[in-house]
C-alpha cells in the first residue's frame, strides 16, 4: 500500500508575514533588526522567494500576542471614561526616552494599536503624548497620562 502524505502547510506565508508586520505597525528595518537578520532576508520571505523560518514564525506570533494585549489594555482604559481619550507616541525617540514596557518598540507599533481600538470605539479622541492639545488622556499603562 502506498503511503500518500500531504505535506504540512508552511507555518506562515510571505504574504501573511507582510500583512501581519504591517498590521503591527512595524517597518521591515525594525523587524529585521529585532529578528537579528538582514533586511534583505525579510524582503525575500515576504516576497515568497524563501520560506519563513519557524523561529521567525514563533517570534511573529509572540509579537502579535504582545500587540493584542496592548490593544486590550488601551480598550480597557477607555471603558472607565465618560469622554474616551487615548494618547500615542509621535516619534520613536519619544518612546525610548519614556522607558516602560513599550520602549523597545517603534512609535508606529503603538499607533497601530490605537488605530485598532478606534475601529471599535469611534469618536475616541487621540492626542500625542507630548501634549499637542494639552489634555491628559488614557494610555493603557495605568498612570492615566
UniProtKB/TrEMBL annotation:
**Pfam families to which the protein is assigned, alphabetical:** HTH_31 (PF13560)
Task: Tell me the domain of life.
Answer: Bacteria
Region annotation (Disordered) maps to 125-145
Basic and acidic residues compositional bias, start-end: 127-139
- Report a single Gene Ontology molecular function: DNA binding
The cross-references to CDD domains, in alphabetical order and at most eight, read: HTH_XRE
Protein name listed in UniProt: Transcriptional regulator
Q: Taxonomic classification, please?
A: Bacteria, Bacillati, Actinomycetota, Actinomycetes, Micrococcales
